[in-house]
Amino acid sequence: MQNDFMNLIMNLFNKNKSSIQDEWNSKGSKYAEEINEMIEVGEKIGWENWKDKEPEDKREHLAEEVIRQLKKANIDNSVEDFRNRFPPSHSPIISFLEKQAQSIEQFHFVDGQKIVFLTGTAHQKRQAYILNNDEIVILDEGIHAIGKSKKNNIFGIATENKISTFKGWDGELIQEFKLHYIAQLGITELIPFNDGNKVLVVTEEGIFLLSQNGEKLIHPVNEDNEEDWSPYMSMENATLSNDNRYIVAGDQTYDHRVLDSDGNFLGSIGPQSSYPHFCLFSNDDDQLITNSCHFYNGVTIGVDSDILNGICIEAYVESDDYKIIDEEMRVYTGLATSKYYILGDAYGYIKAFDKNGNKIWRHFLGSTISGMTISDDEQILWVGSSSGILHKLILGKGHRDNHTIGNGNHYEEFRLLVWKDEPQIWKW
Predict the structure, then answer these.
(1) What does CATH list as the number for 106-370?
(2) Fewest beta carbons within 10 Å, which of 31, 102, 286, 410?
């Protein structure tokens, strides 16, 4: 009698598991199909021609049980089986993200299938990690920021009172820069120069050129010598050209300013949306792109690098000195491959564009995209978001499941839920 009762309980439990799996998959594939169809229509013939309602993902009520099973699969070492039964999706687990999310940023490729990244923003207590294939190593909690040069594999590591540059990850020390004013600031981004002897440091209280000569504030500048002037900024952003010939810096209040390698002013590029928000050089340095934003949208333009010295592009004015790359994205992060740019936006999309503004592909991950890096052979892309999720994508390998939103034909090998207040990182 007892065995019969136990068998009945197990049968009901397995039936419930099967029912949850069936509902997760049927509704998930239907939602992805409908979203992909809507976007295809909008991009090809205009959003005004989409007459149906926007698709809804109606699986939120399944999230708690699915996450419970995910965590159990991690403990039982059965994640692959779980992943095949429950392809990951973003929208059903938003209630978890509201409580546990944290930004994942400052991604840098090391070698093989190894990257380094940090959790937390410049305002928060950060933690640095190494991800080697799917193995996580926790780094020294005293690391405040990590950067990598555009060429030559130079890494910069910021600790409490210094920034050190190294030839390669765990390589020989090149320089140590003692910090003074910068030591009090949260570092949004740092980019070592290709020789490791200078570092571009981005903070919300100034963008600095760090060298053995000290900390030089290069953006913004108090041009009118105002007594109550402050370098405090919002949406601070900067980049180096790959050959380190140019520095570009901007923020919500000031246009993108083009500087030489010593921080001297060369020209300016005004926003074509409301606020300067992001900048990046193409892989071959032939083009600079700048993004400006308005709420969750934005405009990205491309400027030929051979006219940067002395350039003056006015805000909100059409000009032959630039071409439109994109008129939708508020870009938070991006990188340049040998063929195209990959840009991440406020809506959770990564999209690829060439230098003429042709959209190559799009792929949806969810939440604001906060960091990314790519392998040297440009086959593997790692992407982080403000949802506390890190994605490892094999580019061009083909979709892994029919829950994928996007036309990029990319294969998600896994995603990691790097959530705050969790005792471990969950693999999905």
Answers:
(1) 2.130.10.10
(2) 286
